[in-house]
Amino acid sequence: MSDDAAGGAPAAPEPAPIVRAEGLTKTHRGEGAPVHAVRGVDLTVRPGEFVAVTGPSGAGKSTLLHLIGGLQRPDGGRLWIGGQRVDTFREARWAVLRRRSIGVVFQFFNLVSNLTVADNVELPALLAGASPKAARDSRAELLAELGLEGRERAMPGELSGGEQQRVALARALVNHPALLLADEPAGSLDSKGTREVLRLLSRFHQRGQTIVMVTHDARMASAADRVISFFDGRIADDAQLGGGRREKPGGVSRVLDLKE
Ligand SMILES: Nc1ncnc2c1ncn2[C@@H]1O[C@H](COP(=O)(O)OP(=O)(O)OP(=O)(O)O)[C@@H](O)[C@H]1O
């Protein structure tokens, strides 16, 4: 009997997962023997989750993250972002999707070295169609939030590693992406920088940001609410770290609103 027939309120529909992968496969084919980096991965990430992907070097963690962000193409399997099938997308459609809905931070920040901090953060907003004023306002808000007020006119090379990673975070978050992907975001930082990145990721997560983070660092992983152990291209373990799933309306509606 349904809830309705029983007289109770109908169950709320499950929000679409932010990420859903089925049988995702990627083999790198270079000079030598092919490397089966991702071997048939099934994965669902729900709105508001903070998922850490850990595992030994070469396990395929970064490749998996790159597939989810459309930075590499799978050879097989299917992938949905916010309910939309994306593994068939060509680069131009991926670029639009990433701009609007997926923020990415890398170990080595990847800031544009000849643009100021302010321009690095505003650029993705402008590319996504924000007005110059809206881009400036979002940039100012984020830089203040990330403790970078007063550094707007600095060039990336004048900043510490920790500061550069905070600018990279601001750039990744400026379009309020439904999904934040982070590949070893503290991998090149000292312990102070690591703590800072961890604190900021946790804060954004508390506000509903969905995050998938690749990390070697057990302390980083322990900030997540779900830890996936990746081994030899497959998910070896998938553990919830208590606290359950968190859902915040912003993340859900944003991802369901994906339009091109
Ligand atoms: N572009 C590429 N061409 C060829 N082989 C690749 C390429 N990218 C990754 N690989 C290989 O695929 C395997 C998985 O690499 P990947 O970087 O995804 O692993 P990882 O778990 O993230 O490792 P690490 O923690 O060391 O970064 C490794 O054997 C790696 O050498």
TrEMBL record:
The record's section on InterPro entries has: AAA+_ATPase, ABC_transporter-like_ATP-bd, ABC_transporter-like_CS, ABC_transpr_LolD-like, MacB-like_ATP-bd, P-loop_NTPase
Please name the Pfam families in this protein's record.
ABC_tran
Specify the ABC transporter domain's residue ranges: 19-257
Provide the Gene Ontology terms for cellular component: membrane protein complex; plasma membrane
Task: Extract one GO molecular function annotation from the record.
Answer: transmembrane transporter activity
SMART domains, per the entry: AAA
What's the protein called, per UniProt? ABC transporter ATP-binding protein
Q: Which organism is it from?
A: Streptomyces globosus
